[in-house]
Structure formats: C-alpha cells, structure tokens
Fold this sequence. Notes:
Blueprint: E1 3-8, E2 19-22, E3 36-41, E4 44-54, E5 67-68, H1 77-90, H2 94-100, E6 110-116, H3 119-125, H4 127-135, H5 141-147, H6 152-160, E7 164-170, E8 178-184, H7 189-197, H8 204-214, E9 222-223, H9 224-231, H10 235-243, E10 248-254, H11 274-288, E11 294-299, H12 305-318, E12 322-326, H13 334-344, E13 348-351, H14 357-368, E14 374-377, E15 389-395, H15 412-423, E16 427-431, H16 436-444, E17 448-452, E18 463-468, H17 469-474, H18 483-495, E19 498-502, E20 512-514, E21 531-533, E22 538-540, E23 547-549, E24 562-564, H19 569-579, E25 585-588, H20 598-607, E26 613-616, E27 629-634, H21 648-660, E28 671-676, H22 682-688, H23 692-705, E29 713-721, H24 724-741, E30 747-759, E31 762-771, H25 777-787, E32 798-803
Parallel strand pairs: 11-16, 11-17, 12-14, 12-15, 13-14, 15-16, 18-28, 19-26, 19-27, 25-26, 27-28
Antiparallel strand pairs: 1-2, 1-4, 3-4, 3-5, 6-7, 8-9, 8-10, 20-24, 21-22, 22-23, 29-31, 29-32, 30-31
Helix pairs in contact: 1-2, 3-4, 7-8, 11-12, 21-22, 22-23, 24-25
Bound molecules: adenosine-5'-diphosphate (ADP) and zinc ion (ZN) (2 copies).
Amino acid sequence: MMIAKVIVDIPVKETDRPFDYKIPLEFESFIQPGMRVLVPFGPMKRLGFILSIETQSEIKNLKSISQVIDPTPVLTKELLSLGKWLSTETLCPRLFAYSAMLPAVLKGNYKKMVRINDQVSLAREFPTLLDTLLNKPEMEWTELLKKEPEQSDSLNAAMKKGFISIIQWIKNDRRTYKKIRYIATSLSKDELIDVTSKLDKRSLKQKQVLEYFINQEPHLKVEISDILKRLNVGRSTLKQLVKKGFLDETTEEVYRDPYADKEIERTTSLSLTTAQKNALAPIQESIRSQSHEVFLCHGVTGSGKTEIYLQAIEKILNMGKEAIVLVPEIALTPQMVHRFKGRFGDEVAVLHSGLSQGEKYDEWRKIHEGAVHVVVGARSAIFAPFKNLGLIIIDEEHETSYKQEEQPRYHARDVAIFRGKYHQCPVVLGSATPSLESYARAKKGVYHLIQLLERVNQRSLPEVQLVDMREELRSNNHSMFSKQLFERLEDRLEKKEQSVLFLNRRGYSTFVMCRDCGYVVQCPHCDISLTYHRKQGMLKCHYCGHQEPYPSQCPECTSHHLRYFGTGTQRVEEELTKVLPEARVIRMDVDTTQRKGSHEKLLKAFGEGKADILLGTQMIAKGLDFPKVTLVGVLAADAMLHLPDFRSSEKTFQLLTQVSGRAGRDQLPGEVIIQSYSTEHYSIIHASYHDYHSFYDQEMQMRYRHHYPPFYYLALITLSHPQVTKVVDIAEKIAGHLKKGLSSDAQILGPTSSAIPRIKDRYRYQCMVKYKREPNLLALLKRIQEHYPTGTKNDDLKITIDLNPFIMM
Ligand code: ADP
Ligand code: ZN
Ligand code: ZN
C-alpha cells in the first residue's frame, strides 16, 4: 500500500503536522511529493500538499486521497524542505510557508456547498427549502443566502437538526489559463475559390472571409479577434463557415505577457572598468567552482553594480543554469525591468505586485516549466521554482521590504542563503548603503566584501548642501522652500535642466490641530492621529480605515480655530505652481499612480522632458536614471528621524544617500539640497558627505551601547485584545515564562504598551527579547504560542511573534 503524508489546508495549530492518506491505485503511477491534492478532512474536502510518499502508516482505517490536482509537482524537493525550515525558524504553520511560495491562483479557494443529509425529514419540515435545493443541486451557500434571504432561517434550522450540512469544495483553477482562439482552413486555394462561387449570393460576409483566405498565401491560422476586427464581421459568420467545414477553429493556450507591447531595445555587455572587473572576479570564481559564498557588494550609486549583475548572469545562462534577481518593489520600475529584458529578452520573467493574478501565474509558470532562466522580482520571487539555480542577487539589500510582515515572517536574505547552500551557488547582496547587519558580517569575514567606491568613469558624486530650516524661519521665510533651493530651481528652469523634489511622507502626515487648545484629532478606534485628505475633505485613519468629515469645531474645546499641519505632495505642488508658475511639474505619489500603468507613463513623460520637476515620495527615491536631472531637493530630511524605531537613523541615512544618487548620473554634474530641522544629526551630516563608513562607525557605537542588532538579536512578541486588563495580564505571564526559560544573558524588556497602543479597538502590549545565543528560545516561543490559542474571532487574543523584527510599532 502507498501512503502520502499531506499538509492539509486548515490553518489551525492542531493541524500543523502531516496527515496520512491512502493513495488510490489509479494515482500510484504518477503521484509525487510536491503535488497538490484534494483530501477528505472531517466533513470537508480540503487542499493539501504531499510532503512524502511512504509504504506504511501507524494509523488504521486511513482515508484516501480524493483527487490529484497537479500533473507535476508545484513544489520541488528543495522547496518542500525550505518550507519546513521556514516554519521552524519563523514559528509559522507549514501550510503558510508553502502557500507563500506559490502564486495566489494556486492557493485554496473554497466554495461552500449545501449537501442534503436527510431528504425525508427535510421534505417534512422544510419543503420549500428542499425544493430550492433540488432545483439547483450545485448551489453555493452564499449564493443561496443572497438569492433567497427569506430561507436563511430554515437553512440554519435544518443545519442544526443535521438535515443538511455545508461542505467546502475547492474551486478548480480552470480559468487561470489564457487561451487564444484561431481560425484556419485546410482547403487549398482552388477549393476555396470553388466553394466561394457556390455560396448563396446574400452571404456577403461569408464570402468576404473566404476571400481573405484566398488572398492569403500560405494559409496561416489567424487570431479570431483579429479577423473579426479586420473584416468587420461577426462571430456567427465564422461559425457558419466552420459548420460547413470550410474553416477550422482551434484554441491554443498562451502565457500572458505584461511586456508584450513594449519595445525594448536589446543591449550587449559593456566593457567593464577595472573596478568592475575586480568586483566580478571572485563572484565568477564561486560560480566556476560551484561553491556557496555570500558576497556583499558595497558600491556607491552609479558605480556600475547592475552591469556586474548582468554579466554574472550571462555566465550562469551559458552554463545552462538559472538566476534570481530581487529588487525592492518600488525599484521595479520599467527602467530596471528594461535593463534585464534588454540584455536577456525572453529569458526573463518579471514578478511584482503591479501584475494581475493571471499575469503573475503565467510568469510563475514560465519559471516552473523552464521557459525562462532568469526572474527579476520583488521579495516573494525568492521562491522561484528553479531546479538548477546558479546565482541569487539581492539588490538594495538594506531595504526593509525584504522582510515579510505577515506569516511566514521571513527575510528574503535568509531564504536566499538557504537556497544558495542547497544549490552550492553564490548569493550577491548589493547596496550603496548596506544594512549594518550585513556590513558587520562582511567585516567579520562571514560575507565576502566587494567594494566599488567610485562612480563609473570617475563621474563625481553630487555635491550636497544642508539647509537648516530653523534658520529660514528666523529670517522670515515661511515657505516650504528654502532660499537656496528656490534659487537652484529657478536656475535649472532657465538652463532647461531637470530637477527632482523628494518629500519623505512616512511619519509625516497632515494632521488637524486646534490652535487654541492644541488638540490633535484622533481616530476613535486607534490611538493615532487622523490624516487629512484634502480632495475629499475627509479625515482618514490609515490603520483601520475610519473616516469622518473635517470638523467644523474642536471636539475638545469647541474652538473654530482648527488648521491642518504637515506637508503632503499636493500642497508642495500647489505652492510650486504659485512660486514657479512657468515650471511644468509631474507629481508621483499613491494618489497619482493608482491606475495600472500610470507609474510608467509619468516616468516616461519625465524622461522625454515633458516636465521640469518630478515631485514625489519614496517611490522616486530608487532606481531612476535620468541623465538630465542635475538637481535633487529633499524637502524634509528628518521626517522619519524621530520614529520610535532603533533603525530610524539608519533609514534616514540610506534614504538621503539614495535620493542624492539620482542627481548628476550622466555628463552634467549634479547638486543636492537637503532641507532639515536637525542639520546637526550625524545621519544627515554623513549622508551629505556620502560617507557610509563614518556613519557605520558612529551608528555601530550607538547600537553597541543600547544592545541592538547587529550586537544582539531581537524577538518581539506583540499581544492584542479588546480588554486592556486581559492583555496586561497575559503579557506579564509571558514575560515571566521568558525570564524563567532563558539564560541570564538575555534581556527581557516589558511588557509595555506598543508605540501605537490601540488599533481597531484592540489594546496592544509587547515584550522584546534581546539576546546573543539562546538555543532554547525557539522552542520556548513555540510553547508560548501553543499555550495561548489565538483564534480568528474579533474578541480573541492575538499573539504575533516576530524574530528579527523590522517594525517596532
Ligand atoms: P549602480 O547599479 O551601481 O547604481 P549602474 O549599473 O546603474 O550602477 O551604472 C550607472 C551608469 O553607468 C549606467 O548608466 C550604466 O549604463 C553605466 N555603466 C555601468 N558600467 C559601465 C561600463 N563598464 N562602461 C560604461 N558605462 C557603464
Ligand atoms: Zn481645542
Ligand atoms: Zn483607526
């Protein structure tokens, strides 16, 4: 007998282990680990992943697998073991780990169906309901409730009595393939002429279609949608011709191609500078000897890192192997994609959040079916199901978006290293501003450090000028532009050069304050101020979605002197048009880039010189390479310096360095103006000199003093519950367990209330563990997780455990 060990799609803790199922004879010949199956679980049919196939089981009376969904495994052997590792390291159910590796369309998508258990009783007590159910045997539960709401009482009653039950059924993924329909003919030209002449005189349209084929040599198949448009005929015309046997219809399955209509110019390798050659050599050596090593490529902006990646990938392709390139979501601009597609064409799949689910699925399938050998994508592309990986690159490795903030709470860097070890291939981390963790590891020799400290062809890094905005106020300038920045903007307008204005929005919202009593309007459900959205005249909470109209008076003191503070891109744009009316401005923020493709359109327009100033948020900080940009202005450099996060200095330094790197990338020299209210802060000063090493030294001292990473590891346990007493009580118990279970070297901070103490009416408390080596920690945390069941109902306790957290709030 053959047995399959299956992880079943029921996200409850008790089921986070494989279950045994019998493999029916008819599946034996092809069933493999990594395939998805449908299995009975209680009264339901659920999706499952086969972990392994065995010959015996300790359990008697095994149920059988009902259906095998995939013809080939969707998870490779490597991914199966990666999932197991992820689930241990991040304390998440294995099911979540596997689901994270697959495109959304392959995840369980269930229908709830009504099943009749006892027709006789149903006929006696609920005859109308029985009628409905018999009329439509495949009735979906929600559909039934919607169509016949008056039946919901009898439904519930019949269910309580056991006359019917609700079974779950997985929707199959029939509609996930894109098909193209073609029309063709197997008749020869003469035959076509013959049948055309015999057509009824009134069948003009049919004649037209046949004539099209007569004039076409040879008789290729044509897309139906194409011919309908071209000849302006209807679908029925074609159908009649098919019926008569003159034409044949065929269907072919195709990959959706999100880049199909883009002209991408092909490029060839540049001849490398000496610095680039020296950087590439050790990576090539690791590729050649097929040995795993992690490289940290610290290269200033514009030092030619991307060209090094491209040439390393070329080697990999020549060896018949595959490469993964991760870039941050916001850097997945068309510019970046074009550089990879331009070099490797159809060998490249692209994965990012801007694609539809179908497009994402097709990009994934190209990888799975071996149709491409390179993937360029955001975080989750690290799970690309390649079987013969030769290289993994993580660009901008310091980006916090590489950490997933929901289960599995993994960092793409750790997954990359797991896969690099498995395939014995190099992992290259690249950045102009490496994370402190990575740089410290490189200094210790754990990673191989590669440095590129100059821009390609000795182009100089732009000169940076710091402007103290407090001084501006003192000299009576109340505008959001300092005198210096305004003069430079005018200057660029005259010279017809371009400028980029960057506004750091994070932690810098437009809140509404009472000028009499100082009250700031807060969300009634979350302890956080509401953000003013001017267009709709509404105040919105960015955590729970609560919204209310702009108040006419202060809720605290009834004063009418309310005003909003903070600067949004809209306000900057308005002020720009006031002070520089002749400037053409493109604004890029979440509001102007909501529609698909708008991001690309705006950038293209700017690249073609259709605007003088590009004004935007974080999304313009990275990856842009516009030769005519000679001025970068940063409006509020310190906006995130004061967030309750030990990485706030590091993030400020990184962001300022990235933004400055947008200036002077070509022949024209660049200039940067940074406006700030904290010009004395070391992260801002070092950024203004492009001085990573001094920043690193100073920040490391701070981390050392306060016991933060990379000197200590962190684990953050966050609890939430609608009752504050309950949260405090459990948080204290957990802190007690931690103190008892860990060594005296570990520090347990808290419980304290979180930086945002309440979200959606739930109170939030947290404990933080700082530690160096605690072999028991994972097991202890797992016991805590199991001891406090966290349900899905709103009034249940929720516990999240985050190892190496990036969000402290
Ligand atoms: P980074 O990724 O480090 O920011 P890029 O790879 O984008 O740097 O290179 C910056 C600019 O220099 C790009 O416009 C690129 O085309 C150009 N460049 C890179 N390497 C070379 C080279 N060897 N010769 C000429 N130009 C180069
Ligand atoms: Zn007031
Ligand atoms: Zn809220």
